Amino acid sequence: MDDLLSEFLTETAESLAVLDVELIRLEQTPDDPDLLSSIFRLVHTIKGTCGFLGLPRLEAVAHASENVLGKIRDGAIAVTPVAISTILESLDQIKWILAELEANETEPDGDDSALIERLNAIAEGNAVEEQAPVTAAAGPAEPAAPAVADEEAVVALAVEETDEADAAEVEDEAPVAVQAAAAADAPQRQARADGHPEVKESAVANQTIRVSVDLLENLMTLVSELVLTRNQLLQMVRNQTDSEFNVPLQRLSHVTSELQENVMKTRMQPIGNAWAKLPRIVRDLAVELGKKIELEMIGADTELDRQVLELIKDPLTHMVRNSADHGLETPDVRLAAGKRETGTIVLRAFHEGGHIIIEISDDGRGLDLARIRQKVIANGLATEAELDAMTDQQIQQFIFKPGFSTAQAVTSVSGRGVGMDVVRTNIEKIGGTIELQSVPGRGSRFTIKIPLTLAIVSALIVEAGGEKFAMPQLSVVELVRVSANSEHRIETLNSAPVLRLRNRILPLISLRDLLRLKSANDDEPPAEVAKGDAAAPGNGTALLHGSSEHFIVVTKVGTYDFGIVVDRVFDTEEIVVKPVAPILRHISMFSGNTILGDGSVIMILDPNGIASATGEITPEAAAETTARVRERGSDDTVAMLVFKAGDDTPKAVPLALIARLEEIPADKIEWSSGRPMVQYRGKLMPIVTISDDYRIRTEGTQAVLVFSDEDHTMGLAVDVIVDIVEDRMNIELSAERPGYVGSAVIAGKATDVIDAGYFLAKAFEDWFTAAHRLDEARGRGRHLLLVDDSPFFRNMLTPLLSAAGYTVTSVESAKEALALCEQGAMFDVIVSDIEMPGMNGLEFAEVVRETPQWRETPIVALSSHTNQRDIERAKTVGFNDYVAKTDREGLLLTLSETVTAMRGAA
Amino acid sequence: MSHNSDFVTVTVARQLFGIPVLTVQDILGPQRITRIPLAPPEVAGALNLRGRIVTAIDVRSRLRLPPRKPGDEGMAVVVEHDQELYSLLIDSVGDVLSLPDSAFERNPATMDPVWREVSVGIYRLKDELMMVLDVDRLLTIDRAMAA
Predict the structure, then answer these.
(1) Do B34 and A601 touch (CB under 8 A)?
(2) Which of A47, A416, A505, A589 would staple A62 via disulfide (CB 3.0–4.6 Å)?
(3) Contact by Cβ (8 Å): A758, A800
């Protein structure tokens, strides 16, 4: 049956039941204006709905009744038993028609003119008593005979309860009516015997009842309690293998789960309810903004908890408004951009796991990054330099910042100070997340992920400092176990603990430190531990003290990923979130508390609170920190040449180190004392292989990477050159493999980064003691100090410089370098990076120029930025020269010149 | 004409306190209490009382008294405040006393300010003084003070 129709049947059946009662009350208290208007309203509603649904017969009857009631309400006619009876009769007629409607989905044929005429006569206020006999007489005379019999029966039924009183009353004024009632009595019983139960009871109406939301909420709470108690019982029995309770408990568990599910269903409403207003809003917007907008709604029948529904209604409306206002272009702009004139906004809802996903997408212009940047700078949310360091994705996230709105003017549509920040806050409040994807010129898509219900959530039970906590499963991305010898280790960056996870660096937060809990292994009172922590705040070693094994709960809040370090992880449990006592509400780390299966109380962690407590940062700011950390952990963009040699693992080498790429015909490769070489530009070039068992081609051509070092060139035989990738590199160092600096993820693949210096040295050490000659030409045992925070560059440059004859000491910070100075170490030359955490290269140079020991030592700056301004600055603070980081040739040349100059001076 | 008021008497650090009998929901023995990190020091934790979560307040801490000796579990009186249940951790529970209003006196001026804040007044008993606890005030924990 049509939803609309069945809803109408249900509603009308309810109204009719109320009307029956109220009409009788009206008869007793004819001058109660409230009652009268309530009756009038009900009848009016029925009439209106019939008209709307196209049910003329019902509408006519209802209209006539309404007419009479209207007259009564206006005081034009008095409330008489006859009038009431006639109205009741018309209601019964309506019920009968409804019953037919329910059975056949159409109005029955027939004619109610007699009834309507009588109603009209009453409305006219005449011939009441003359008309009365018609009640009995006209009834059977109706064309639809059996129907009328039913109708009559119901008349009597409706009056049944008040039969006595009614009859008595009627007797006084209209004796005939009594007869009518009496006459009706007989067919009534007959009708019952005939069995037309559908007239009395609407099957559809009886399938649904209206229950107050409070009752449902109550029921939900009770079920939640039941779930908890069940969990407690299960916990108790879990420890006993063959308890007699096992079987009944399993059954109880099963029934409880089903009960829970069903009660949850009672609270479910289709999301379409929240969307109902949107088409109208979009239409109005389209008119106001002069745009053509199509709103497509997919999955409107996806159900979710009504509490959740209420909470997302406004955010959704706001976002659709935004799409229409900011997202979609005007028709001419669209046409100019080669798009369809009509813009589309698509709302899509679907279930995924225990969550509901709602997507709001448009095919508009996408987020205007330039405008966002302007706004961000104008509103002082970030500086230009900070923005430059961010990815587009990070800049887009600013729209979720408080006080941000991209609308240039405040329109009636959006931009009223309620921005996406409120949307996000509302969504996060209910444990949801919102993500944003935007492609310029193609449109934007917001993806909202929210839990189906707020009442019961799945939570991961963790332990830190001897206390257990519940962590909502929704925000948990994964679990990582770390120990001294596991694949993952906790490392520190400038004393901030981080975890290297795949190709990301994840900031870590120790739950124990955050909640100022005592260490798991000692029984010190928390206060003393707090003191200890204060001495080394957030220290990675402090994080590791006590136990050697930790678990990291990788947590996602918005776009901010971070790891929460805990001591132990237990299983997941379904928990009911209960609010904490008012005196604890100010603790933002907890979203509530609950009772676990074992009967103990446990605090529920609030990932949002934890995220914002980590260094007093909002998630956006945290994302920036992550980015910075990431940047620091890896390096500046480096162009890498990716190739394959020997096996299938891609290998890479910084492009800057390579002089040329050559394809050498296999027959040109000569062998001398078992080593391959080739005549190359008038000289002999040794060819080294990636490993000893690598086979140089004997036919076709051999691809060779040519490394050139002044007079000396070396070729590295490779299978194939794959690509040149310019990327931020995060290199995992591996000290154990000669020839390799480590591995990195390049273009999404694990790639071995080879150590060019190693091969260079290998070629020349083996080759005519070239290394010795290099010593002569270059460093010749000169002592060089390399200061660079990047392990990658330290590892890349050290072998190269060593190969060039320098004795290299490398340190990772200016502080360490100065410590060496304190200890009286002397160097012939210092090579220092400029961008370093803590003391940067410029400051370092200044300090060095102040020291008595190193005042004269030449310093060469090494940086990825080589503009004139930087070079000038470097020179003023005391650097002797300035070399680009990747310009290896330049570095060696400069060093050689510098050292020679010093020698000359000395 | 004299009027009587009923109190549940409790002892904290050998001082007798009275809690109006109608505010008392329950008397508990030692319970398993979950500590709540970052909570004010007066909050001893939370416990499960027949499926309801009850916040435990350490009365000794609230009254700036030294903590109980280790091993001394103490007892608890459960009271309702703003539709929330609180468990007041005290040393021991005494009797229910019905005391005449004539024995009531206001707080002496020399009383410790912290105590005066949570005391309604004093009853003169035969051989000691009983301080009437103002449960509402007792449960008003100043966050600034706690922090």
Answers:
(1) yes
(2) A47
(3) no
For chain B, list the strands marked E by DSSP: 4-12, 15-20, 24-28, 43-49, 52-58, 75-81, 84-90, 92-100, 104-105, 119-124, 129-133
The pair of structure tokens assigned to B98 is 């019905």
Q: Which of B38, B48, B55 sits opposite A587 (nearest CB)?
A: B38
Chain A residue closest in CA terms to B45: A601
DSSP A611-628: HHHTTT--HHHHHHHHHH
Output the average pLDDT for chain A: 74
DSSP A827-860: -SEEEEESS-SSS-HHHHHHHHHHSTTTTTS-EE
CA distance A113 to A13: 23
Instruction: Please tell me the distance from the alpha carbon of residue B57 to that of residue B67, in angstroms, as a whole number.
Output: 13
Residues A340 and A662: their CA atoms lie apart, in Å, by: 51
Residue A294 clears pLDDT 60, i.e. is over it: yes
Phi, psi for A139 (deg, rounded to 5): -50, -65
Establish if A584 touches chain B: CB-CB under 8 angstroms.
Answer: yes
Alpha-carbon span B132 to B125, nearest angstrom = 12
pLDDT greater than 80 at residue A158: no
**Through-space distance between the first and last CA atoms of chain A, rounded to whole angstroms:** 103
Residues 6+ apart with CB under 8 A from A772: none
Strands A859-863 and A881-884 turn out to be parallel
Owner of token pair 């994840």: A506
Question: How far, in whole angstroms, is CA A26 from its chain's centroid?
Answer: 57
CB contact under 8 A, A583 and B38: no
Touching A: B residues 89-118, CB under 8 Å:
none
- What count of other Cβ atoms lies within 10 Å of the Cβ of residue B132? 20
- Across the interface, do B53 and A601 touch by the CB < 8 Å criterion? yes
**Residue A56, H or E segment:** helix A56-74
Give the C-alpha separation, A657 to A851, whole Å: 35
A517 CB neighbours in chain B (<8 A) are 37
Query: Which residues of A440-503 form beta strands (DSSP E)?
Result: 443-451, 456-464, 467-472, 476-482, 490-493, 496-501
Chain B residues within an 8 Å CB radius of A583: 39-40, 43, 55, 139, 141, 143
Cα distance from A227 to chain B (closest Cα, Å)?
11
Task: Give the per-residue pLDDT at A133.
Answer: 40
Give the angle subtended at the CA of A295 by the CAs of A290 and A299, to the nearest 5°: 170
Closest CA to B137 of B93, B79, B97, B68: B79
Angle between helices A420-429 and A306-322 (to 10 degrees): 160
Q: Which residues in chain A are contacts of B37 at CB distance < 8 A?
A: 467, 515-517, 589, 603
Q: In Å, how far are A791, A848, A898, A900 from A905, measured between CA atoms?
A: 34, 19, 10, 8
* Residues in chain B closer than 8 A to A593 (CB atoms): 46, 53
Compute CA distances A644 → A165, A649, A703, B87, B134, whole Å. Answer: 102, 7, 10, 71, 81
Question: CA–CA separation, A611 vs A37, rounded Å?
Answer: 57
Higher pLDDT, A650 or A455: A650
Place of tokens 């009595």: A185
To the nearest whole Å, the CA of B90 is away from the closest chain A CA by 19
Section A807-831 average pLDDT? 83
pLDDT in tens, A108-148: 887 788 888 888 888 887 644 444 443 433 333 334 334 44
At residue A848, φ and ψ (nearest 5 deg) are -60, -40
Please give the residue of chain A at the shortest CA–CA distance from B52.
A595
Alpha-carbon torsion, ordered A534, A538, A544, A547, to 10 deg: 60
Q: Which residues of A785-814 are buried (b: 16+ CB within 10 A; e: fewer)?
A: bbbbbbbbbbbbbbbbbbbbbbebbbbbbb
Copy the structure tokens of residue A823: 């200890």
